[in-house]
Write a structure and sequence with these properties.
This protein has 512 residues and is of the alpha/beta class. The chain is built from 14 helices and 23 strands. The N and C termini lie far apart (82 Å). Bound molecules: nicotinamide-adenine-dinucleotide. It comes from Pedobacter chinensis.
């Protein structure tokens, strides 16, 4: 495939078959196990990656530990300067990397480019933050004492990422972890190793130009088994894992058992409440983009619409019309709205969910199906569909990572909020209303129980400035903006006595 080859050349990826890289070197010779990356766009095999064996893993850990000793003493603003250069390198490679993301993962080119833009944005954010890793100063109860807190790096940060944001999630973690003084080991999804290799090339060049020690940012290719090596490893104080709730429960338990720290970013089951006071045209765009964008494979995809009974029928008709106009096909062709699912397993899960929904009494107003024919040869293209359901259907309580949208009717706002909150997940939520009382109730303590709650925008498409993450089975982690950086550091409280005596706290007397 000449196109992809020229993109790889632009990105400097010459060996796409390496198992892992530390710094700028490639290796991983000790294992013969491989994994293959197929593009869901056209079904072509685009990369063969060697899976890291235990010996490779040990090598990476040793390099990371040694690099940490150097990296942690570089002043944070100087580390920020290197992250700034990484952001610039991403700017230079935005088109090529965005196209590769689109081709390997299957999201639209616009979204692939948007994903790289998010990487650039988090670098900019991290550069500023590198001069703002503030701790508090407290007044001591003892005379001539000073008390303050400071933040130190943790050591190795393990990053385990999902296929659907194959590069951005790594950068959210890495940019912050790096300015905080940590080193990283990244295990990308086994479904998207090639984009990860490309990212490693980009950052390695920047490190090399700055004489940064090898082992500050490491890539390790493998599946769940490699992830498990990381989660059980006491040498990795923080594991930041993004993926399914099933994975998060396993990772949380393994890291918890060794009393390590975990930052979990798991599945969502996101709803938009469409009130009788909503701007229905605006709501339509938010709902349709939220439900079909990235073919329903965003953690923040809109899965449920909770619609007021007075506008339910009108809005349903608008949705049906809009779905009729969706163009499904090659995501690199900008005329298309919807690309493929990641693989044929995801297609099987989509079909299974449709069946389960029907078995529970769901009524499809837009039917789903798998597309066949010349343009759909990968077998990964499906038709976005819409079903009228009850919120307590088992299938509605579950996150299906596909473009299936559920419609639920409500009478009162209290009922709508209860429905919105009435799922095990708690990632993103939204209300469409022009009524101030409704909006404020939705955002209040008795409103949405999610980590993200929006008014008059949909559930998907967060900006990096805010802390990103969710509650309940979404895992409770926060990444990206606001003070999410604190998760990547350890807090130390310091008390300094500059008097001539040693008074004890709480007035305790101890004389010798
Ligand atoms: P997945 O859970 O199948 O895999 C995610 C990653 O975890 C992969 O790298 C995988 O190899 C690894 N993994 C799986 N089991 C593991 C284990 N027991 N120990 C260690 N590592 C393990 O998820 P996926 O299909 O790649 O991604 C889709 C899921 O990710 C959806 O549920 C989606 O909502 C979620 N997601 C959440 C966010 C968020 O920020 N909340 C963002 C993106 C995706």
């Amino acid at each position: 495939n000449t196109d992809i080859q020229s993109i790889l050349n632009k990105l400097g990826v010459k060996e796409s078959n390496a198992a892992f890289s530390t710094g700028s070197n490639w290796g991983g010779e000790s294992n013969q196990e491989i994994l293959k990356s197929f593009s869901p766009v056209d079904g072509k095999l685009i990369a063969i990656a060697k899976v890291a064996a235990v010996a490779d893993y040990e090598d990476i850990i040793a390099k990371a530990q040694s690099a940490f000793k150097e990296w942690r003493v570089i002043p944070a603003p100087k580390r920020g300067e290197i992250v700034r250069q990484f952001g610039d390198a991403l700017r230079e490679n935005k088109d090529a990397l965005g196209t590769l993301v689109s081709y390997e993962m299957g999201k639209s080119l616009q979204e692939g480019l948007g994903e790289v833009q998010e990487m650039i944005d988090i670098c900019d954010f991290a550069v500023g933050l590198s001069r703002q890793l503030y701790g508090l100063t407290m007044h001591s109860e003892r005379p001539s004492h000073r008390m303050y807190e400071q933040w130190h790096p943790l050591g190795i940060v393990g990053i385990i990422s999902a296929f659907n944001f194959p590069v951005a999630v790594w950068s959210w973690n890495a940019a912050l972890a790096l300015i905080c003084g940590n080193v990283c080991i990244w295990k990308p999804s086994e479904k998207t190793p090639l984009t990860a290799v490309a990212c490693q090339h980009i950052i390695s060049k920047v490190f090399k130009a700055n004489d940064v020690a090898e082992g500050v940012c490491n890539l390790i290719i493998g599946d769940k088994a490699v992830g498990e090596l990381m989660t059980n490893d006491g040498r990795i104080p923080l594991i930041s894992a993004t993926g399914s709730t099933r994975m998060g429960k396993a990772v949380g338990a393994a890291v918890g058992a060794r009393l390590g720290k975990s930052l979990l970013e798991l599945g969502g089951n996101n709803a938009i409440i469409i009130s009788e006071h909503a701007d229905l045209d605006m709501s339509l765009i938010g709902a349709v983009f939220g439900a079909v964008g990235t073919a329903g494979q965003r953690c923040t995809s809109t899965r449920r619409l909770i619609i007021h009974e007075s506008v339910y029928d009108a809005f349903k008709e608008k949705l049906i019309k809009a779905y009729d106009q969706l163009r499904i096909g090659d995501p690199l062709d900008q005329n298309n709205h919807v690309g493929p699912l990641i693989d044929t397993d995801a297609v099987a899960a989509y079909l299974d969910s449709i069946q389960k929904c029907k078995a529970e009494g769901g009524k499809f107003v837009v039917e789903g199906s798998v597309l066949t024919g010349e343009h759909y040869s990968s077998g990964c293209y499906v038709k976005p569909c819409i079903a009228e359901v009850k919120n307590d259907f088992k299938i509605v309580q579950h996150e299906t990572f596909a473009p299936i949208l559920y419609l639920i009717k409500y009478k009162t706002l209290d009922e709508a909020i209860a429905l919105q909150n009435g799922v095990p997940q708690g990632l993103s939520s939204a209300i469409m209303t022009l009524n101030l009382r409704e909006a404020e109730q939705f955002l209040s303590a008795k409103g949405s129980d999610c980590g993200i709650a929006n008014v008059n925008i949909g559930t998907s498409g967060a900006e990096i400035g805010g802390a990103f993450g969710g509650e309940k089975e979404t895992g409770g982690g926060r990444e990206s903006g606001s003070d999410a950086w604190r998760a990547y550091m350890r807090r130390q409280t310091n008390t300094i006595n500059y008097s001539n005596t040693l008074p004890l706290a709480q007035g305790i007397k101890f004389d010798l």
